[in-house]
């Protein structure tokens, strides 16, 4: 399969003989350091594997067509044999597809500000209008850096901590250099094209879908639609936050995750 993604595995800091495994996946244009705010709390309960998606952060750009299944393939190559998968935004889509197609690898699933279908259509109105995403794609070809910053700022819109959130993202986004343009371009193509509604219906593992009350990318109403597709799944909405619940309200985010995992006996 060629080049291996950047990944690291951090030991659990809690007093546990055999801590469960957790893998965390970031979203479009970012990298694994986006989880740093909540990492100490996660490490109290888990051994945590962090991954940078292809062409982002510290990861190289392996050859091949950059699709959702390409992302799944390369993440599985470095993931624990079985783990709870925690994915934010595009990372949530990677985690959903993995839970659907490779159930033996996924003990539990938590998606954060993610959706089975990012772009709206007649049957799925609770999503970004296609023309808005296409506008981002067009401008990306002319000004990748500016488009990245505008998209990240849109993720923070509506948050009670919008200035702090934007500042934190801007500090993080270039920490490992400018992302590969192919990763940005193809990542937007994935968001435009992928429809995981059938995948959701196949997922059998314990699942929690977390949403931000003020998210301008993933409307909060998606929580009901996801519940209809996957009735056994749990959904929760964190108040006062937009697309970055773990950054805007880390304590509420951790509480929602750990409550769910304890209830499902995954902790």
List the helices and strands and how they pair.
Blueprint: E1 7-10, E2 21-25, H1 39-43, E3 47-51, H2 68-76, E4 83-88, H3 90-101, E5 106-112, H4 130-142, H5 144-156, H6 162-173, H7 181-193, H8 197-202, E6 207-212, H9 222-229, E7 234-238, H10 245-248, H11 250-263
Parallel strand pairs: 2-3, 2-4, 4-5, 5-6, 6-7
Antiparallel strand pairs: 1-3
Shape: globular
The assembly state of the depicted protein chains is single chain
Under the CATH scheme, the architecture is 3-Layer(aba) Sandwich
Give the CA-CA distance, first to last residue.
33 Å
- CATH homologous superfamily descriptor: Alpha/Beta hydrolase fold, catalytic domain
Average residue pLDDT: 94
- Compressed to H and E, one letter per element, the order equals EEHEHEHEHHHHHEHEHH
CATH class: Alpha Beta
Structural class by sheet pairing and helices: alpha/beta
CATH T-level topology: Rossmann fold
What does this structure look like?
By secondary structure, the protein is of the alpha/beta class. The chain has one domain: Rossmann fold, CATH 3.40.50.1820. The protein is 41% helix and 14% strand. The chain contains 11 helices and 7 strands. The chain has helices spanning 39-43, 68-76, 90-101, 130-142, 144-156, 162-173, 181-193, 197-202, 222-229, 245-248, 250-263; strands at residues 7-10, 21-25, 47-51, 83-88, 106-112, 207-212, 234-238. It has a 7-stranded mixed beta sheet, with helices on both faces. β2, α1 and β3 form a beta-alpha-beta unit. It starts with 6 loop residues before the first strand and ends with a helix. The mean pLDDT is 94.
